[in-house]
Amino acid sequence: MRNGRRKSGGREEPTERERRRLRLRWLPAAMIVAALVVSFVTRGALNTFPLLAAATVVAAPLLSLRGTCAIGVVANLLGLSIVILKREPGIDEAVPFSSLVLLTVVAAFLNVVLARDRAQLRTSREVAAVLQRAVLPDLPDRVGRLAVATRYEVAHKEAAIGGDFFAIKETPHGIRMLIADVRGKGLQAIRTVNALLGSFHEASQHRPDLPGVVRQLENRMQEVISESSGEDAESFATAVVAELPPDYSVLRIANRGHEAPLLVHDGKVLPLEPATPALPLGLDLLDADDEVPVDLFDLPVGATLVLYTDGINEARDADGVFFDPVPALSRHFPPDPDAVLDAVLSAVSRHTGGNLQDDAALFAVTLEDAVSGADRLRPAPETGRPEHGA
What we know:
The protein is elongated. The strands form three sheets. A six-stranded antiparallel sheet has the order 3-4-13-12-9-10. It is an alpha+beta fold. It has eleven helices and 13 strands. It has helices at residues 16-24, 27-41, 49-62, 65-85, 91-135, 187-206, 210-226, 310-313, 325-329, 337-352, 370-375, and strands at residues 7-8, 11-12, 142-143, 146-153, 164-171, 174-182, 237-244, 251-256, 262-265, 268-271, 295-297, 304-308, 360-367. It is 44% helix and 18% strand. A hairpin with a 2-residue loop joins strand 3 and strand 4 (146-153). Mean pLDDT is 81; it is low at 3-12 and 377-390.
């Protein structure tokens, strides 16, 4: 399961948020240079101690402890030079210089506190990422004639595992796909995701039709709710369950209160909206005789189906405007789901300034023609066994 970073020359490219932070690391030094220039141009007529003091404070959240102390030492030496070079230094210069020394000590203390907090948050995120990978393993790059790509983007402000997940399974009834978003985070979300994933794989293998898969998911969600208490008993999950039959003739989609999938083809984007809205899993008791709305769509060869959770379309910019993925995908793409998802994530990063507000899962499949699919499974010369990924 890839995240949104791309590799260049064997190394991962930094995200927009990381690039902005790298640029800001030069701010304290720039402030000191500005103070030096102002002091030189005005021959000491303007008081530059506030600018020097600000540089030491700004360094605390941006630099390491060594960098913060270095900025503080340089600022103090510059401030001392200004005091010494004055023809008649007095108490008026001693007070701001003493304050500058004190602020340097305070900045170093703040740096230590912030570094400890960042380390704790980073550890929490790493634990959450390990749990996420354990619950949500990598999907294959190819299933039948479908090229598959996935991404999972963790919100920068979060340190808990989310309820976004996806799955794909090739069965005797066709290829079945799922993307879902469980309400809440943490251990309850893990339990619910694990339960629904297991139910999906079981139902996909044994249920002959898509409504049967949805009913089993609904029943499992109801069991999870009945075993919970408090706020966890009010859980639900939005989901899209999709199916391609063995002949790839039609795309069937059952949408349970989830964001509409997008069909990207020939430079155009078509939201696959359900004809009849349905409640999320956990909010609708389904008996064997209850109808499950299923919509039928064409999936042309070379087209890419994009499924995503609300962390994408509810991502906001500085003015609170929600992100719309349709414009970002309204151009010609190669028949490659990775390229499509990279375009979405790049556009989201630009829209939010690299600050995603909620976890987001993305799942895309591209239908290849039968000849291409056969070429990728040609016999290997040495063993005669199928050779994948040629």
